[in-house]
């Protein structure tokens, strides 16, 4: 009987140690994410959500669990993996800590059933909350990056595609759209995958033109849709709230429709004649001025914009432009990118974001 009692005590101590370790792990991971929401995103709403969740976790961290702690005798403290020693970007840091929190909460959910069934139920709900917060945060971060982007490169087929895009990224470009209407799917998949990796290594957003399936396959940051493409509601259902969706518009009605359907940004154009939109009449600067006065989401003037007319577009009210040929066909994409960006230094756009 004494042996049985002793074994039960030993098992109880092990359970306490497991609970203690994973409570620490969950709280630490949440704090790391919370700090980015506070200092990186300046979002009091997200900070409050993570702080409240962290405090809810702490309420279950009882003294008997802490008393069972045995750090010197924990073999796990000596174990590490090379992937844990370096983070390639903020995205990878956040993703790693979301995984850390979710795994810890799953352990807590199971082992707490041996301690207090109510604790298991609580951590099950908290784990689902973390999944939702992960989607909210990654979507929020993308939207913040979109708000800060003045220049949007839309690619065209080129033998030097990767080289040109990287040169523009070196010049400060923060937003790239992959556009290739005629390539076969395997070519698009290969090129888009390489471009996404390249953009993310420079901390830039990567968008796919038209192809929601391709955006999902390579985990792009979003998709840009034309007026004849998939409905916004369908694209949102497939992509979720964490990815960006843009829509091309040529008049005020298309602008209002796109905004009412919940797009994250709109394209405004073509401002000038362009072979990219062969046969489509330019909308001119009047539509640019209209959007500047009426749109309350990010928008990009596009179509035939180059170094000769960029300031006319800015004077009409544009604080963001999308460029194709002027960068893709430039001899020095880095310098051209820097020139375009320099033209926006004198303006400070004000928007009312549709992402709280």
TrEMBL record:
| CDD domains reported in the protein's UniProt record | TMP_TenI
Q: Which reaction does it catalyse?
A: 4-methyl-5-(2-phosphooxyethyl)-thiazole + 4-amino-2-methyl-5-(diphosphooxymethyl)pyrimidine + H(+) = thiamine phosphate + diphosphate; 2-[(2R,5Z)-2-carboxy-4-methylthiazol-5(2H)-ylidene]ethyl phosphate + 4-amino-2-methyl-5-(diphosphooxymethyl)pyrimidine + 2 H(+) = thiamine phosphate + CO2 + diphosphate; 2-(2-carboxy-4-methylthiazol-5-yl)ethyl phosphate + 4-amino-2-methyl-5-(diphosphooxymethyl)pyrimidine + 2 H(+) = thiamine phosphate + CO2 + diphosphate
Annotated region described as Thiamine-phosphate synthase, given as residue ranges: 130-356
Q: Which Pfam families does the UniProt entry name for this protein? A: ThiD2 (PF17792), TMP-TENI (PF02581)
UniProt: 2-[(2R,5Z)-2-carboxy-4-methylthiazol-5(2H)-ylidene]ethyl phosphate binding residues:
274-276, 304
Q: Which GO terms describe its molecular function?
A: magnesium ion binding; thiamine-phosphate diphosphorylase activity
One GO biological process term is: thiamine biosynthetic process
Residues of the region (Unknown) are 1-129
Pathway the protein contributes to: Cofactor biosynthesis; thiamine diphosphate biosynthesis; thiamine phosphate from 4-amino-2-methyl-5-diphosphomethylpyrimidine and 4-methyl-5-(2-phosphoethyl)-thiazole: step 1/1
Q: Keyword set for this entry?
A: Magnesium, Metal-binding, Thiamine biosynthesis, Transferase
Annotated cofactor note: Binds 1 Mg(2+) ion per subunit.
Q: Which GO terms describe its cellular component?
A: cytoplasm
Database matches in SUPFAM superfamilies: Thiamin phosphate synthase (SSF51391)
Carries keyword Transit peptide?
no
Instruction: Cite the Thiamine phosphate synthase/TenI domain residue spans from the record.
Output: 151-327
Is the keyword Cell membrane in the record?
Answer: no
Q: What is its EC number?
A: 2.5.1.3
Q: Where does Mg(2+) bind?
A: 210, 229
ThiD2 domain location, by residue?
A: 17-135
Q: Where does 4-amino-2-methyl-5-(diphosphooxymethyl)pyrimidine bind?
A: 177-181, 209, 248, 277
Cross-referenced NCBIfam families, in alphabetical order? PRK02615.1, thiE
What function does this protein fulfil? Answer: Condenses 4-methyl-5-(beta-hydroxyethyl)thiazole monophosphate (THZ-P) and 2-methyl-4-amino-5-hydroxymethyl pyrimidine pyrophosphate (HMP-PP) to form thiamine monophosphate (TMP).
Family named by the database record: Belongs to the thiamine-phosphate synthase family.
Q: What is this protein called?
A: Thiamine-phosphate synthase
Gene, per the UniProt record: thiE
